[in-house]
User: Fold this.
Amino acid sequence: MFVLDAAAVLLVLAALFGLVNHRVFRLPFAIGMLVSGLLASVGVLVIDRLLPGASLANAVREAVLQVDFADAVLSGMLSLLLFAGALHTDLALLRSRLAAILSLATIGVVISTAVAGGAAWLAFRMVGLDIAFAWCLVFGALISPTDPIAVLGIMKAAKAPKELEIKVIGESLLNDGMGVVLFVVLVGMATAGTQDMTAPRVAAVLAHEVLGGILLGLVAGWVCYRALRSIDEPNLEVLVTLALVMGIGFAAPRLHVSAPLAAVAAGLLIGNHGRAHAVSERTEQVLDTVWTFIDETLNALLFLLIGIEVLAIDYSRRDYLLAASMLVPLVLLARLAGVAIPLAALGRRAALGPGAIPVLTWGGLKGGISIALAMKTPDFPGRNAVLTATYSVVVFSILVQGLTVGPLIRRVARDQDPSGTRQRERTT
Assistant:
C-alpha cells in the first residue's frame, strides 16, 4: 500500500507543480519540475524555522526517506526512460557517427571518472575530510554519466544541428550503462580491496556487464519484434513493448548484465527495424503516443523527486558545502577532459564542427542517475559528503547548464550556418 500511496502523492504533486510551472515559471518542463520541488522543500524548511515546534521538516524528511530513490530510478525508471529515448533515435544517423559516440561513452567516461575522482580527493582533503581515494573514484564514476532525457528535450527545443544532436543524444543513451558498470566495479574495489580486483578480473566484469547487456537487449528485442510482426492490434503491441522493458529489468540483475544497455539495444531495434517491418502506421502512432506519455510522466516524477530529495541531504556541515562548491567547476573540467581527449584522438573521424566541444561539455547535464548511484553506495567514512557534493553538482547542472545550453546551441548553429539559411527558412 505504501508504494501505491507514494505513487498517488507524487502524481498529484507532479500535476500540480506542472500547472504552476506552465502558468507562472514557464520553464522547460523538466527544469520546472525540479524548481517546483526545490521551492516546496525550501518552503518546508522555512516553515520549520518559523514554527520549530511543528517539526515539519523532520516529518517530511522521514516520509522522503521512505521512498527508495535509488531503487525507484535504477530498478524502475531508468530502463523505461532509456527505452523511450532509444525508440525515437535514428539508428542510421547514430551508426554514421558511431566512432565518436562510442569513444565518448566509453573512453570519455573512464577519463571523466579518473579526473573527477582525483579532483574530489583533492577537494575533500582541502576542507579537512579524509575520504579514501577509492571512494573518490566511485564519486567520479557516479557523476560522469549524463542525463539523456534532459539532453534530448533541450536539443530538440534548441533545434540543434543534426551532427551535434546525434552525438550528444547517442552518447547520453550509452554512457548511463557504462557509468553504472564502472560504478559497480569501483564499489567492488573499494569494498573488497584492489588485491581482489585484478586487471583481468575487472576486464571480465566489464565485458560481462556491457556485452551481456547488449546481447540481452538484442535477444529480447528480437523476440518482441517477432511478436509484433505476428499481430496488428495496437493496444496489445504497446503491452508487448512494455513487457519487453519490464522483462529486461527483471532478467538483467539476475544475469549480472547491464539493464540500461539492454534497454537501449532493445529500443534501437524496435524503434528502427521494428518500425520498418513489424508495425503498421496506426500502431506506430499509438506506440509513439504511449511511450512519449510514459517518458514525459516518468521524467516529471524523476525531476520532482530530485527537487524533494534536498530534504534527505545533510546541508548542516559547512565543510561538505565548501567541498561541493569546489567540485561543481572541477566536475565540468572532468567533463571537458572526457570530451576533448577522445575526440582529439579521433581527429577528422569525429567530424567536429565549430563549437562542438563546448556544447558537448556544457550540455552534458547530470541527472537522477547520479543521485541514485550515490544513494546506492554502502556506508563508508565520508558518504554524506559525497551525497552532498553529488546533489549540488546535479542541481547546478540542471538549473544553470540546462537553462543556458539552449542559447549556446543556437549560437553554434548560427556559426555553422553563417549564410542564414535557417533564418530565411523560418521567415518564409
About this structure: Residues 421-428 have pLDDT under 50 and may be disordered. The two ends are 56 Å apart (CA to CA). The chain has one domain: 71-418.
